[in-house]
Amino acid sequence: MSEVSPSQSLAGRRVLVVEDESLVAMFVEDALLELGCVVIGPAARVDAALELIRSLDIDAAVLDINVGGEAVFPVAEELYRRDIPVIFATGYGMAGLPEPHSSRIVLQKPYSTEKLRAALEEVLERAR
Prior knowledge:
By secondary structure, the chain is of the alpha/beta class. It has helices at about 20-35, 45-55, 75-80, 115-125; strands at about 15-20, 40-45, 60-65, 65, 70, 85-90, 105-110. About 30% of the residues are buried.
């Protein structure tokens, strides 16, 4: 992974990661740590993600759309209720997002640490 300097705007931000593929989860975790974030999870199942949301403070979330064969949308809806910004990560791009999720930021897999940084900064700015 290339050296990326921590982001002032992301330093200390608590980011939930919901991803069931271990290699992808490790990449996202490493990238977030490199950006200065605190990683929550990663959660590999919808029920595990919902438990993390209920028990921990979260500033933003990066959600794979399909987690363990289950759609992640119940997690997204719980995050919306709590006004926590969401980024969807998927190999399907915008086509993989039905309404009411289609207005959210999507990271097309595979993505770089820089694209993750830009997406996080954007969702956090929108949430201000």
